[in-house]
Structure formats: C-alpha cells, structure tokens
Amino acid sequence: MFLKHTQIAPSLASQLLTAAEAAARAIPPAFPLDATVAVNPFLGQTGEDLAQASARLARVAGVRLTQPRADLAAKVIAEEITDDDLAAALIASPSPVKPRDLVLLKARMHSPAPAVQALPTVAELAANATGTDWPAVIARSFGLWAAGFFDRGQALWTPRPGHGAYAAWREWATHDLTPEIAGLTGFCAHVSEAPDTADRAVLRAAERLGLTVEAAETALHRLLVDLGGWPMHARWLLWQAELQGGTDATLTDLLAIRLVWEEALLAQCPGVADDWQAVVQAHGAPLMASADQALDAVLQDAAERAHQRRLAGLLSGPQVRAGRASLQAAFCIDVRSEVLRRALEAQDQGIETIGFAGFFGLPVAHRPEGTDEVQKHLPALLNAALISTSHGDEAHETETRIKARAKRAWGRFRQAAVSSFAFVEAAGPGYGAKLVKDALGLGAEGLTRGPMPRIEGGLSPEAKARTAAAVLRAMSLTEGHARLVLLIGHGAQVTNNPHESAYHCGACCGQTGEVSARLLAALLNDPETRAGLPAQGLSLRDDTLFVAGLHDTVTDKVTLFRDTPAPDHAAELRQAEAWLARAGKLSRAERSLRLPGAGGEDLAKRAADWAEVRPEWGLAGCGAFIAAPRAATSGRDLQGRAFLHSYDWQADKGFATLELILTAPVVVASWISLQYYGSTVAPQLFGGGNKLIHNVVGGIGVVEGNGGLLRPGLPIQSVHDGERPAHEALRLSVMIEAPVQAMTEVLRKHQGVRQLFDNGWLHLFALKEGRVHARYVTGLLWEPAQTQDRTSAAA
Fold first, then answer.
1. Which pLDDT score, from 0 to 100, does residue 792 have?
2. CA distances to 264, 432, 692 from 172, in Å
3. What span, in angstroms and rounded, lies between the C-alpha atoms of 793 and 788?
4. Residue-range domain boundaries for the chain
5. Secondary structure letter of residue 93 according to DSSP
6. How far apart are CA 19 and CA 13, in angstroms?
7. For residues 213 and 19, is the Cβ–Cβ distance under 8 A?
8. pLDDT-based confidence at 609, cuts 50/70/90?
9. Which residues of 278-309 are buried (b: 16+ CB within 10 A; e: fewer)?
10. Can you give the three-state secondary structure of 313-366, one letter per residue?
11. Is the pLDDT of residue 223 over 70?
12. Does residue 445 carry a pLDDT above 80?
C-alpha cells in the first residue's frame, strides 16, 4: 500500500544530505553512565547567540533557553538586577527586535511570556486525526529496540549484533507487530521495502514528505529531538570515533529510522497532508528570534551582569603571604573544592592551596586490576598518551578476575527473568539481613581504594623529568615548595545512584582523581625525575614530599595515600591530617545549610542511604571560573560557586599555559556550567527526569518507568530542592589574570573557543592585580571595566 522508491536529482540530494548532517551536528553528545561527563547541551548552537538559539530550539523542541521571565522581573523589582545591569545588557544585545530603550524593556518584562510549542511531526498530526498516540507508540517501540541494540553489557541478548543501526532496526521492525496492532497497517512490509541504506532512506523520505532544502535542517533536527536521548548517545559514538580520526554513521541511521515512521504515517493518514505542508512551510521560513525571545535574552544577560558585579566586588586585590608555606595542597578546580580549600586555609596562616584540573596534567588511560578494560582519566576533549595499570602479579590477577566473573554471574542469576524467582526462594531470608544492613546505612565503606597504579612500560628518566616539568609549570608550582605538598583528587561516595560517575571528577572523564594524584605524586618523588628537572629549568627542594589524597565531596573527608615511606615527614603528615579533619567539619557545616533536611554531621549517613536522592548538590550553583594566583581569591567566600585555577602569567613564558587554560579547563567548565543551565531552564529536553522512577537501560543511561526514550542530562533532584531551583541558571563568567593582548591572541588562534565568547555562551574578563580590569566584548575587542558603568549611567 506504500509508494515505490523514487529518485532525486544529484544536486538536490547533496543539499538534503548536507542538511541532514547539519541536523545531526546540532545534537549534543551524551556520555554513558560508567563515564558520565557534563556536556554543553548547546554544542550544536554555539555559532548563534542566545536569542537565535532560543528561536531554533523553540521550533524543534518547544523549549525556552532563559530563566522564567517572571523570576527575572522579580529580581529587577528586588533590585538584585539594577537599571545599570539592564541598560548594559540592552546595549550589548545584537538583536534587531530587542526593546528600543530601558523604559520599554521594563514595561514589557511584566507581560507574560507567550507559550512555546515545537512544530508538529507527522506522528503528532496523525495522533490528532486518529486518536492514537503515535508519538508514544514510536517512543516505546523504538526505545525497546534501542535498549537492546546499544546495550553495553546489561542485557543477555542484543538484536542483530555486528550490523549498523539502520540495518539492525529494519530486521527488527519487519517482525515487530506493535505498530500494526496499534493501527498502522502494512508497516512491516513498508519497512522491508525501504531503501537498503540510511542515506537513500533519508532522500526517499524527504521527497515523500515534501521537504524543501530550506525546511530540511530544522525539520530533521525536530525528528532527532523526538527520539530523546538516543540520538545524543549516537552523537557520543560519533564524538568518540572522531577523536580517533574516524567517523560513525549511527546518528544518520537513527534519522532514517524516524523518517521511515513519518512516511508510513503520512501514507496511512493522507488527511493530514495539507497540515503537514503548512508545517514544512514553517520549517522553511528564515530562523529569526522573536521580540519576546530577544527580550528574555536581554533579561538573562542582565542577571549575569548582576552576578558579575557582585563577584567583582569580592575581588578587591591580592592578599600577600610571606615566607615558606607550612603546607601546600593542590585541589581540583571543581567548585566543590572551593569550600574545603577555604576551610583548610583557615586552619593556619601558612597553608596555601592550589587549583588545577583534577587529572593533574597526566594524559592517562587506566587499566584497573581484574580487567583489560581501559578507562580514560583525562578530559573528554583529549586523547590519552599514556596507559597506566593496577594489575598485580599473575597469581593475584587471576584470582581477582575469577572473583569479578563470579560476582557478574551472581548478578545475572539474581536479575534473569527465570532464575530471579529461584534466587528469592533460596536466598531471600539470608539476603534480608544484607538489605536491612544497607537500608540502615551500615554497609558503607567509603570510596574504594585501589592498588598503587603505575605507567605500563615505565618512562625514561628524560620523559619523567619532561612530564614533571610540564605539569609543574601548568600548575604554576615552579618555586616556593613546602616540605609537604598534597595532590588531592576527588570522588563521591553515593549509594544506589546510576549517575554516580557524574559526581566524580569531570577532568578524569567521570572517574575519581585517585589514579592521577597517585601517579603524579610518585613521579614527582622519583629520584630520576628530581635529577632530570634542572635540565628542564626547574628544581625541587630535597626535603619536599608529594603525597596523593582523595577528597570525598559528599562527606568532605580526605584520605591521604602513604605510597612513599617518609619517616622524616611523619609529623607534617599527622598535622596535615588534623587540619584536613577540622576543615572537613567546617565544610560539612557550611554545605549542609543548602541540603534539604541535612545537618553538618549527617552527610556520611546520606552517602550510605540508598534512598537519598540528594547526597550532595554536585556542581549546582557554578557561575564563575577564575584563573589567577590564589592571593587574588584567598579569604573570599565564593560560596562554592567558582572554579579556581591557579595561574601566574608572569611565569608563563610564551603564554603556553594560558592557551592551555582557555582551550581545555575553561571549555570543560563551560560544558559543566551549560549542562546545569540546560537541565534547569529546559529540563524536558536536557534534563534526566525524576530519580524516583529511573530505570537503568543498557548500562548507557536511564528511562523513566519501564520503557520509552533515554533521558539525558541531570535529574530534576540535582538542580531543584522540591520548591525552587537549587541552581541559578547563569552562563559562566571567566576571569583570568593575564594581559588582554595575550588572551586576544589565544582567541584569534582558536576559533571554536572564540565563538563561545563572541556569541555570549561564556563571558570573559581580564584581571589585573586581583581586580576586574577589562571585559571582552566581541570580535576580539575589549572595553575597560569602568566603561560599562559610564555607558549604563548615560543610558
């Protein structure tokens, strides 16, 4: 009953496939659960400003990209956002449809924001015409297939292994009677007659659906959005392939699958053809921000300027400390470290803390004991150059693998469809004791400590010295070393939480920072490293000892690893542990004020509670990235909202470290910030849904309930306390103490990074002597910090 294949002119086919590629690139990647990494959900829209991206995602997803207008207006009324903030944001807006002056802006901000609705798909039009919820049928049918096809070890069976997604789905769909039972007569035959490649399927569907070149990009983007988080997983597969210099066609396959459904439904319901052509015409219209979207973007920018103004008020110049530090402690730049760093420095005037990305500059992928699986322990943007391992000798490794296999077999026995009943009958009473123990939080053991890691194959003395020198320079830790220097990675002890890796170190690709910290401490203590450093222009004092540690961000307890015997430093280590314990207590008291129902010493219990949906807030609240000497921020209460990276530009010859900061840590921090932003302002698109009804699917992600589409992003409980947002959705403000010209040259060299600042996805400021000195505008131009205030006053 369906039409035969048709042909499209080669030039038109090329344009349509280019549009399909653009639609695919508009989808952000979503990392799997075992290595969850925050991702900028607007990765495909960074070439547009906020108002334009709002127009695009309103069309394809029906979402807004700013804080609610009523909330922003309330901040104006409360004078949290001043007239100066509003006027500066209005002047900076590039939109031709923004309010013409401040008076009109303030008058219009009180009007309700109009409802936003995505352009409908054929499935939605057919649902209205027939009364059958076709989008729900597609979600369930496609989700069931995708859960098996993309499975990473959770399922016992997967459909059509070894084949591409489109080919595997065609074989599945020709035997799936669900659509026909729902009323889509002849669907199996339609699938069997579909073109044999995804590209051909896309082209045939484009012709049958009447898609013009002008309409194709957003129409196809709309269909990918309709598949929830599965296209984001496919985008991750493409991301991983491109990091290795390859490619992956899965995302195009998913688009072809969704188009086959659209074809079938249009043929089944010809009465919706006129309505569908109106939709195509709407997709073909130029994409332009509306006056309301421009207004909301100005209000959002004004809120960010208010935050920047308050932050600048805290940065009132450096506080200089003289003499050799009694303790130096390097923490990850993660905002959760800021609270503990401040509490630790309060223990003694001689304590100095340092901020650096938690992989500590080592480009390592790690092979844990008992497995040949390799885990990345570096930012997702980078490729590993070194492999480390925790494998023991052959006998120990064999024993470890046998135990791991037995544990996996036991888990499969408990969860399999038939044997689960036998498990309950046989082990139920005995297993009850474990359930009670876990329910009471008595089985918690804290973060797991692994064996000492080592670089596979080792490094030559020259390589050791070269690597150590590069890391020390990047950390701005080239002189003035204390007798004891701590390298403290971080992780999070949580229970019954599929998003556990999202609480670990983002710079370590969703793993804890233990491996990186221990490897670096061993490298810097190595006599061969020490001997080779002078040739690299650096040296370490003979009495300086590096010790690795791990910060549990849920409990604020720090474990120090005594990997190197150091009897001469026993007193310093005891003192450091005492300081860390007292600092942890202060940090818990501060953080518990934000957590619903928590007391300062309740956090360990929350970590062990398998029913706790908010063991900690993660990076909620993040709003700033500051790269400067610690003296610029020391003693300032930044409320756990700032990424703090140590950086001394005067020791950065050639500004190689500045370039590294702007192109790696800043970009990673922007991914984190914008993921929290997207999960807060558009949770239906970018959020992970409700933790209370999550089920893990395929080891990849979660679905809500017993099936349907993959949910990407952060669960609602990670950004909301039940009454109000726990995260203030602000684009990240980046403040770097470095010459303006040096930063300009880095942006000139890296167009992708410059794009983030030019289009307002990040804000950039130059610090001078610990104070805000200049603001990046756009097009490699800057303005003095005080210019904004004068312009605002004049407006």
1. 35
2. 16, 40, 31
3. 9
4. 10-41+120-284, 315-394+443-647
5. -
6. 10
7. yes
8. confident
9. ebbeebbeeeebbebbbbbbbbbbbbbbbbbb
10. HHCCCCCCCCCCCCEEEEECCCHHHHHHHHHHHCCCCCEEEEECCCCCCCCEEE
11. yes
12. no
Please state, in angstroms and rounded to a whole number, the distance separating the CA atoms of residues 336 and 317: 23
Token look-up 């044997």 returns: 419
d(C-alpha 679, C-alpha 502), whole Å: 14
Q: Which of 355, 194, 364, 180 is nearest to 263 (CA)?
A: 194
- Taking alpha carbons only, the member of 524, 138, 539 closest to residue 362 is 524
Which is nearest to 9 in space by CA: 206, 149, 195? Answer: 206
- The amino acid that residue 579 corresponds to is W
Nearest in space to 146 (alpha carbons), one of 224, 205, 234, 226: 234
Amino acid at 380: A
pLDDT tens sequence across 247-297: 999 999 999 999 999 999 999 999 999 999 999 999 999 999 999 999 999
Q: Tell me which residue of 156, 178, 83, 294 sits closest to 792, measured CA to CA.
A: 83
DSSP state of 771: E
Using alpha carbons, select from 677, 42, 636 the residue that is nearest to residue 300: 677
pLDDT, averaged across the chain: 91
**β-strands 364-367, 386-389 pairing:** parallel
Edge-to-edge order in the sheet of strand 763-768: 642-646, 624-628, 733-737, 763-768, 771-776, 782-784
Q: Which of 406, 489, 498 is nearest to 453 (CA)?
A: 489
With a CB cutoff of 8 Å and minimum separation 6, the contacts of 751 are: none
Cβ-count burial 205-225 (b if 16+ within 10 Å, e if not): bbbbbebbebbbbbbbbbbbb
Burial class of residue 706 (count of CB atoms within 10 Å of its CB; 0-12, 13-18, 19+): exposed
Residue 605 is predicted with a pLDDT of 86
Output phi, psi for 353, to 5 deg. -110, 155
Task: Give the pLDDT confidence score for residue 287 in this predicted structure.
Answer: 96
Side-chain-side CA neighbours of 530 within 13 Å: the count stands at 13
- Tokens describing residue 103: 């008076």
Closest residue by Cα to residue 673 from 719, 715, 704, 627? 719
Structure tokens at 418: 């038939």
Distance CA 36, CA 238 (A): 16
Q: Which of 520, 421, 477, 424 is nearest to 652 (CA)?
A: 477
Angle between helix 10-25 and 198-208 (nearest 10): 110
What's the pTM value of the predicted model, to 2 decimals?
0.93
Tell me how far apart the alpha carbons of residues 713 and 368 are, in angstroms, rounded to a whole number. Answer: 27
d(CA 483, CA 543) in angstroms, rounded, equals 6
Q: Decide if pLDDT at 408 tops 90.
A: no
User: Pairing mode, if any, of strands 484-491 and 545-552?
Assistant: parallel
Query: What pLDDT is stored for residue 521 in this prediction?
Result: 97
Q: What angle do CA 499, 501, 505 make, to 5 degrees?
A: 140
Question: What residues are paired with 768 via a beta bridge?
Answer: 771
Q: Which residue has the tokens 């950039």?
A: 764
CA distance 767 to 111: 39
Q: Are 125 and 381 in contact (CB under 8 A)?
A: no
Contacts of 621 (CB under 8 A, 6+ apart): 335, 639, 640, 641, 726, 727, 728
Return the half-sphere exposure (C-beta side, CA atoms, 13 A cut-off) of residue 559: 21
Give whole-number Cα distances, 558 to 78, 360, 576, in Å: 41, 17, 10
- pLDDT digit string (tens) for 660-682? 999 999 999 999 999 999 999 99
The greatest distance separating any two alpha carbons of the chain, rounded to the nearest whole angstrom, comes to 86
Q: Would you say 85 and 306 are in contact if contact means Cβ atoms under 8 Å apart?
A: yes
